[in-house]
UniProtKB/TrEMBL annotation:
Domain of life: Bacteria
Keywords: Signal
UniProt keyword annotation of Signal present: yes
Signal is among the record's keywords: yes
Signal sequence residues: 1-25
Full protein name: Invasion associated locus B family protein
C-alpha cells in the first residue's frame, strides 16, 4: 500500500507543529473579557496592539427610517483607550453619505456627531457621557443612506452609569503630568 504523503514529510510536519502553535496563538486577536452586564448595558475589556481597552455598549431598541435594518445590529458604545477616554460611537448599519452630520439627543441635550462609513462619532465624548449618566434614553438622528430620508435609532440608558463606572475602574484615567518647575535665574 502506498501513502500519498511520504512518512518523512509527515514526521517533519508533526515535529514542527508544536513549535508553530505558540506563534499562531500569538497572532490570534484577543477575545474581550466581560466585566459585567448592567441592565441594558454590557461592559468589557480587551487588548489592542498591546494596550488595554475598556468599553461599554448597548443595542438599539428601535431603528427607523432605513428599510431592512435590524435594531439588534445597531450599537451605541463608549470606549476608554490610553490615548483617549469617553470616545462615543454609534454603529448604525448603513453607509452614510460623504460629510453627513448626525445628532445624539439625550433629554434636552443635543450633541453633534460626524459620520464615517457606517458609524457616527460624537464630537464631545465627555459631554455625551455626562448627559447619558442622567438620561433615560438616547436618540441618534442621521441622514439616511445617500442622504435620503432620516434614520432614528433609540438606545436605552438604564444601567449606563454602572457600566461606565465598571470600565472607568478597569481602565482608570492616567494621572495628569506634573506641572513644570519654574525656570531658575
Amino acid at each position: 500500500m502506498r501513502f500519498p504523503i511520504p512518512a518523512v514529510t509527515m514526521l517533519a510536519v508533526l515535529v514542527a507543529m508544536p513549535a508553530a502553535l505558540p506563534a499562531w496563538a500569538q497572532n490570534r486577536p484577543a477575545q474581550p473579557r466581560p466585566l459585567g452586564t448592567y441592565q441594558s448595558w454590557t461592559a468589557a475589556t480587551h487588548t489592542e496592539n498591546g494596550q488595554k481597552i475598556c468599553f461599554a455598549f448597548t443595542r438599539a431598541t428601535r431603528a427607523e427610517g432605513v428599510p431592512g435594518r435590524n435594531a439588534q445590529n445597531v450599537t451605541l458604545m463608549v470606549t476608554h483607550r490610553p490615548q483617549g477616554r469617553d470616545q462615543v460611537a454609534i454603529r448604525n448599519g448603513y453607509t452614510h453619505g460623504r460629510g453627513a452630520e448626525a445628532r445624539l439627543i439625550v433629554g434636552q441635550t443635543d450633541l453633534p456627531a460626524y459620520t464615517s462609513r457606517d458609524s457616527a462619532f460624537l464630537r464631545d465624548g465627555r459631554a455625551a457621557t455626562t448627559a447619558m449618566r442622567s438620561g433615560r434614553e438616547a436618540m441618534l438622528r442621521a441622514p439616511g443612506p445617500n442622504g435620503r430620508g432620516q434614520a432614528q435609532d433609540l438606545f436605552p440608558l438604564a444601567g449606563f452609569s454602572a457600566a461606565y463606572d465598571a470600565i472607568s475602574r478597569e481602565c482608570p484615567a492616567s494621572p495628569a503630568p506634573a506641572p513644570a518647575a519654574p525656570a531658575r535665574r
